[in-house]
Specification:
Residues 5-10 have low confidence and may be disordered. The protein has helices at 15-19, 28-33, 38-42, 66-82, 138-152, and strands at residues 51-54, 57-60, 87-91, 94-98, 101-103, 107-111, 120-121, 126-132, 156-161, 166-173, 176-183, 186-189, 195-198. It is an alpha+beta fold.
Amino acid sequence: MAENGEKEEAVTASPAERLYPAPWAPDPIRQRLANYTVEDVLAFPEDAPRVELAEGKVIVVPAPTPDHQDIAGLVWHWLRRHAPKQFRATMATGVMVSASHTFEPDVLLIDAEAPGNRHYQLPEQVELAIEVVSPSTRRQDRITKPAEYAAAGIPCYWRIEQNPLHIYAYQLAGQEYQLVADSAGELVIEAPFPIRLPISEITP
């Protein structure tokens, strides 16, 4: 109630605020507490960006470029056409290591019997995780992600570099990945199934 008989003025958003609302961001208090869970992520608004959870903290996944998406889409399509029936290729789905720790790989090859009606797969349902490296994700895709995927027990990991396009294929050996092949011409490997992948077929 306004004092001295003055009328209260309604607080309304400016035209700019109505046209360009503030982008979604995680709650800073919960970030400090590191208590976000998968259930929280699934309840985020539709306009929220893709995120990963790192021990309860929200990490926003950088927005991909058209080149990045073209490569990921071509890899997904190649795997869909060539993988045996016991596998299923998928894009933009996550891996749940625990309720407070998740990943968002660019492409996954999962067991065909894994549930197809949920966003997150368990590590034991994943045969291959693939990351397409962008300038903003170099450290994560080259160092952090391989270590975390290996710790989660995911058998195979591919790192795809751009400009020029080059694939590095890793296989789990103990608790670490071992580089088993790399190529800018044709990737030839035996796991997770016998593969002869011409790099030209996944080049935009």
